[in-house]
Amino acid sequence: MSNNNVSVKVKTMFLPAQSESARHRYVFAYTITITNQSEGSVQLMDRAWTITDANGEVTEVKGAGVVGQQPIIEPGDSFTYTSGTVLETPVGVMEGYYGMRDASGESFQLVIPQFRLAQPNILH
Q1: Cα separation, 92 vs 108, whole angstroms
Q2: Closest-CA residue to 111 (of 101, 103, 100, 121)
Q3: Whole-prediction pTM
Q4: How far is CA 110 from CA 29, 50, 63, 92, in A?
Q5: What distances in angstroms separate CA 30 from CA 9, 22, 59, 73, 116, one per listed residue?
Q6: What is the pLDDT of residues 73-97, one digit of tens each?
Q7: Domains of the chain, with CATH numbers?
Q8: If we measure between CA atoms, which residue out of 111, 112, 121 comes closest to residue 91?
């Protein structure tokens, strides 16, 4: 099964109320929607993120499922969740993949293309 049958959409948001620029703490939320356009169900088993801030500091995050779940996504359905990350700079990027399993038990990686985390109006 290829990534073409399962899609990922990302929406990001800067959280000013939780951020403190004086302490180099910039908090971002991201909402991910995974849509299954394949013929069979798929299950999200694990995740791996690479998060890079504007200083080039890299954080790797790996673990089972997302937000405490390993959701099964039926054909035509979507699964949406929101999570967050903290950077030391007002701009950064994230990318990674989900470890998925299809209905026949075959594992595949669902690539999450790089997306930007940025405090509004920081980029000119």
Answers
A1: 27
A2: 100
A3: 0.90
A4: 21, 14, 15, 22
A5: 10, 23, 16, 20, 10
A6: 999 999 999 999 999 999 999 999 9
A7: 3-118 (2.60.40.1470)
A8: 121
Region of residue 88 (left: phi > 0; alpha: psi -120 to 50; beta: else): alpha
Q: Characterise 67 by phi-psi region: left (phi > 0), alpha (psi -120 to 50), beta (else).
A: left
Torsion of CA 38, 10, 64, 57, to 10 degrees: 140
Task: Go through 22-46 and write b for each residue having 16 or more CB atoms within 10 A of its CB, e for each that does not.
Answer: eeeebbbebebebbbebeeebbbeb
pLDDT in tens, 28-45: 999 999 999 999 999 999
